[in-house]
């Protein structure tokens, strides 16, 4: 007898289905159904597996009779109404352990790439330009790097930076950094970060509090010009303010894996709106842009499914 049916509305690494089927769950393919169709045809599923195809809102949860859990194949939970889920007794699971290393490696890659002008100078060489002085690099050693948000990805990034002779400052008002575990790291307030940082990386979830956290006042508060990385969520950054800060020299370079104008599913940039700040970034050789791939590696693909399988199995243990 089936232990319950689990509706997959996004594709994930097959490991998750294999593990669940081994434990007696039935896995149901809901990849092509629209949100409305899936709500109308809801058939007492026990679980729902989603990446980011659409928002799981109050109405969806109300229609989802018998639902016990939602498993998000990723870290961010802003597309799930977790308050309503709690009211309906639905457990929300995510898998930040599965892609934190991937994000940390990309953030490090972005930092090194910016500091050494790798993308720009590569393009120039292909265009027949051999510009050495214009592409003189900046070293990470001796610099101060600010990490905002010290959860899964923030910690993983900090661990990668341990190999550099740099000062690492953490701002996260919701955690206490274990300085025995991280002797090279100092937890500070935002003011210290503003006073000392040369490089800053965002690792916060998108919440009401972090929406446009990096706004004009934020960028103008830095005493030194910074290199700025965002691998968290596009809407944490006010892109117009970032562009203004690039124009005034408060930001020397930026690297963005996530962009304010991405669609809800993260599958594309909203082609209907390509506002001026985005045009600026697209035309600037001081902006490094990637299509929401920081957590998107072969390894994280598998690890996310393993982590979710583990969490779901424990839920029913
Ligand atoms: P996490 O929940 O493990 O850590 C987030 C940390 O941010 C927590 O320690 C929390 O205390 C802190 N925080 C919350 N509000 C804050 C604030 N106002 N100021 C400072 N710190 C604050 O999440 P994570 O796994 O580190 O991921 C962070 C976010 O990155 C995710 O929510 C997701 O949106 C995004 N992400 C993106 C990718 C990608 O592919 N680009 C991959 C994974 C995660």
Write structural notes for this entry.
The protein has 317 residues and is α/β, with parallel strands linked by helices. The protein has helices spanning 15-22, 35-40, 58-63, 82-87, 96-115, 118-126, 152-161, 190-196, 216-220, 239-248, 276-283, 298-315, and strands at residues 5-8, 26-29, 47-50, 69-72, 91-93, 144-148, 167-171, 185-187, 199-202, 226-230, 251-256, 287-289. Helix 10 (239-248) packs across helix 11 (276-283). The longest helix is centred in the first third of the chain and has 20 residues, at 96-115. The two termini are 17 Å apart. The mean pLDDT is 96. The structure holds nicotinamide-adenine-dinucleotide.
The coarse overall form would be globular
Which superfamily, in CATH terms, is the homologous superfamily of the largest domain? Answer: NAD(P)-binding Rossmann-like Domain
Oligomer: single chain
Given this structure, which CATH class of the largest domain is correct?
A: Alpha Beta
Sketch the major β-sheet. Answer: 7 strands, parallel
Number of strands: 12
CATH topology of the largest domain: Rossmann fold
Q: What's the end-to-end separation, in Å?
A: 17 Å
Total helix count? 12
Range of helix content: 25-40%
What are the segments in which pLDDT stays under 50 over at least 5 consecutive residues? none
Q: Structural class of the helix and strand makeup?
A: alpha/beta
Q: What's the architecture of the largest domain in CATH terms? A: 3-Layer(aba) Sandwich
Total discrete domains = 2
Please report which band the strand proportion falls in: under 5%, 5-15%, 15-25%, 25-35%, 35-45% or over 45%. 15-25%
The chain-level mean pLDDT equals 96
Order of helices and strands: EHEHEHEHEHHEHEEHEHEHEHEH
Give Rg in angstroms.
21 Å
In spatial order, strands of the major sheet run: 8-7-6-9-10-11-12
Which hetero compounds are present in the coordinates?
Answer: nicotinamide-adenine-dinucleotide
